[in-house]
Amino acid sequence: MEIKDIQEEIIDEFSMFDDWMQRYEYMIDLGKSLPLINEAYKTEDNIIKGCQSKVWVHAELENNKLIFTADSDAIITKGIIAILIRVFSNQKPQDILDADTQFIDEIGLKEHLSPTRANGLVSMIKQLKLYAVAYQTQIED
Amino acid sequence: MLDIKKIRADFPILKRNVNGKPLVYLDNAATSQTPQQVIDAIVDYYQNYNANIHRGVHTLSQEATDKYEQARNKIQKHFNAAKAYEIIFTSGTTHSINLVANGFSSLIKKGDEILVSAMEHHSNIVPWQMLCERTGALLKVIPMNQEGELRMDVYDELLNNKTKLVFCNHISNALGTINPIEEIIEKAHKVGAAVLIDGAQAAPHLIADVQALDVDFYTCSAHKICGPTGVGMLYGKENWLNKLPPYQGGGEMIAEVTFEKTTYAGLPHKFEAGTPNICGGIAFGAALDYMNAIGFEEIAKYEHELLEYATQELLKIDGLKIYGTAKNKTSVISFNIEGIHPYDMGSILDKLGIAVRTGHHCAQPIMDFYKIPGTVRASFAFYNTLEEVDVLITGVLKAKSMLL
C-alpha cells in the first residue's frame, strides 16, 4: 500500500470516534499491539530527544524498503509511534522523504496532545525522515 | 473553619471548563491560581498609577514608589525580617539563588565545601555546581532515606570547618517533605557556614520567621502564593548582603557613576538594577494580604485534611505507590501506578479536566534515587475541595482501566 492510501485509511478510522476519550483508547490499543523492538536496539543512540517519555527507533533496509521498529516506555506515545510506523515502515526511502504529514492535522492528533508530546511527535517524524535520507544515500551508492 | 465556597468565588479561573469538564486544578506546587483581589491590584496599577519608581518627581511616580515600598514592608513583616532593606525584590526563587551563588564567587575558594540536600529542585543545584566550577569548591550531597527524609546523621558527618555554605529547600517540591531547617541552620552555624533556604514550596503553606530561624538567606516566588509570575524575593541578613557584590549592573543600583569608578547604592537597591517588576511587586504584597486575611494556620489545617483524605483514598488503589511519605509533609502527593507511565496518566487526567504535573518535577536526582522516570504529582491548595479529591480518584481509576 502506498503511504497516501494508508494515511487515508487512518483518517477514516479516526473519523469514527465521537470524542477524544475514544481516540485515546484507540491509540492505547495500538500502543499495546505495537510489535516489540529487539531489546538490543534500545540504546542511547536510538533515543529520540524531545519527549517526556523515552522513544527508541531502529531502522533497517530490506529489499530497498525501510523497516522501522520502535518502542516507548509510555503507552500513548507507543500508540503514536504505531500510527507513524504503519504509515512509514516498509516503504522506499524516497517515498518516505516525499510524503507529507498532513494526515496528522486531519486526525487532530497534534492539537489534542500536550505541548511536550506534540513536540515529541514532530521529533519522531523528523527522525524517521532522517533515517530515510541516510538510507537513500546508501541505495544510491 | 475556612469558607471554601466563598474562597473559591475569589478565583475566576476555577469557574472554567477544561476539555468539557469542570477544571480540577491540582498543580498548585507548580503555580497557584490568582484571586480577584490580586488581579484587581494589577489592574489598579496599570489603570491609575503606572510610572517608573524611585527617581520621578511627579505624582504618579511618587504613588508607584510608595506602593512598591509598601509591598516590601508587607513582605518584611510577613517573614519578620529585621529591616525592610533586607528584602530584595527578584524575578523569583531561581533569580534569588543565582544572585547569592554569584555573589559567593568572590567569597569561596578552592577546597571549600558546599552542601546541598538530595531533594533539591534543579534551580538549587545547578547554580551551586556553576559556583563550584568557578571556584574549585566541592559540592557534597546530604542524602535522603526511602521515605524522602534527609539523613541528618549523614549531615552531621558532612559538616566540618571547610563547609562554607549549606543549601536546602524548606519543603521539597517533588515529595512534599518539610525539612528540619531549624536543625540544619543551627548545625551549619556551629561550623561557621552560611545557610540559604529555598522557601518556594513552603511559602504557600506556612510562615517562615527568618529571625527566629536565624537563617542567612531565604527566598520565595510570588506565583506560588497567589501572586503573579515573574516576581519573588530574597531575604538576606544585612551583614551578608553587604558582603556580597552586586549581581547585575545598571540603573537604580548605583550611588555615583563616572567612567573612572562607580560606587554602588546601599541596600536593597544595590541588588535591584534596572526598572523592577513594579506591578508584580505590588501584586505580591496584595497576595500576601489576601492569604494572611484567610490565615495560614487555617490554611495549613485544611490542607492537611485534604492531604490525609487524598492519601487515604489513593492508597486504596491497587498497585499505587506514593513517593515521599515523610511524617512531616505538606499537601503534595507524588505517585505512580505499577505498569503505568506517569505521562500517560497525566494525559488521561487532563482529558478529564484534572490538572496534575507529570515528570521529574525539575528534581531528577530524586527520580534517579527511586529509579523511576517520573511521577504523577497532585498538589493541593486551600481552595481545593474534598469533592475534587474524589474526582481525582475517579479519574485515576478510569485512567488505570484504560492504560492497563
Automatic annotation (TrEMBL), chain A:
Superkingdom: Bacteria
Residue ranges of every copy of the Fe-S metabolism associated domain listed in the record: 12-129
Similarity field: Belongs to the SufE family.
Protein name (database record): Cysteine desulfuration protein SufE
Automatic annotation (TrEMBL), chain B:
Any GO MF annotation of the entry: pyridoxal phosphate binding
UniProt xrefs under Pfam families: Aminotran_5
Catalytic activity, reaction form: (sulfur carrier)-H + L-cysteine = (sulfur carrier)-SH + L-alanine
Cofactor: pyridoxal 5'-phosphate
GO BP of this protein: cysteine metabolic process
UniProt-listed Gene3D superfamilies: Aspartate Aminotransferase, domain 1 (3.90.1150.10), Type I PLP-dependent aspartate aminotransferase-like (Major domain) (3.40.640.10)
Protein name: Cysteine desulfurase
Organism annotation: Maribacter arcticus
